[in-house]
Design goal:
The structure is a single chain. The chain is mostly helical and 168 residues long. It folds into 2 domains: 96 residues, no CATH class; 45 residues. It contains 7 helices and 4 strands; from the N terminus they run ααββαββαααα. Strands 1-2 form a two-stranded antiparallel sheet. A two-stranded antiparallel sheet has the order 3-4. α6 crosses α7. It is globular and about 50 Å long. The two termini are 28 Å apart. It binds zinc ion (ZN). Zinc ion binds next to loops.
Length: 168
């Protein structure tokens, strides 16, 4: 198991920023951190649907929400979902997670059911190219077609939702 040095460093910053360090350590111990692009699966308790769970501030909390919150400096608002670009419920790799609404979540689920071949996971390596197309005036929908992703994922790239604006 390879632990990404960057991830460990980021987590250390979160500890210093005031998250209760024992919780962060317990969280980290249950994430199988692999390579940058791989899924980092939760090794602790999972729900029936496969999502990781652990107690956070005394409350049972989804592991992927914690992963998103720790990586981004703030826990996601309760009314927003943390979605998996990789479609792998136990995954806690922050770069596979993005914020979305309930409608986005339903949309993901129906695309999956239809088996539409437009994945919603956009690797960070494609983000600069997609942004270049968009800033050259390409509409979201046609950019999505060109790159073979769905429009909601391209929209997330455009507005930096789950894709930091400084990715180059
Ligand atoms: Zn993943």
């Amino acid at each position: 198991m390879k632990r990404s040095a960057e991830y460990v460093e980021r987590m250390r910053c979160r500890v210093n920023a005031g998250y209760r360090s024992t919780q962060v350590v317990r969280f980290q111990a249950r994430v199988n951190v692999m390579g940058e692009a791989d899924c980092w699966e939760w090794a602790g308790v999972r729900t029936m649907a496969g999502y990781g769970r652990m107690k956070w501030d005394g409350k049972p909390t989804y592991a992927h929400r914690l992963a998103y919150g720790l990586a981004n400096g703030a826990m996601p608002p309760a009314d927003l979902f943390v979605r998996h670009k990789c479609d792998n419920p136990p995954c806690c790799n922050p770069s596979h997670l993005l914020l979305g609404t309930h409608a986005d979540n339903m949309h993901d689920a129906s695309e999956r059911k239809r088996g539409v071949g437009h994945p919603s996971a956009i690797p960070f390596s494609d983000v600069p190219n997609i942004r270049a197309y968009l800033s050259a005036g390409q509409p979201i929908v046609s950019t999505a077609d060109i790159f073979g992703y769905n429009a909601s994922a391209v929209r997330a790239v455009k507005y930096g939702i789950g894709y930091p604006m400084d990715i180059r």
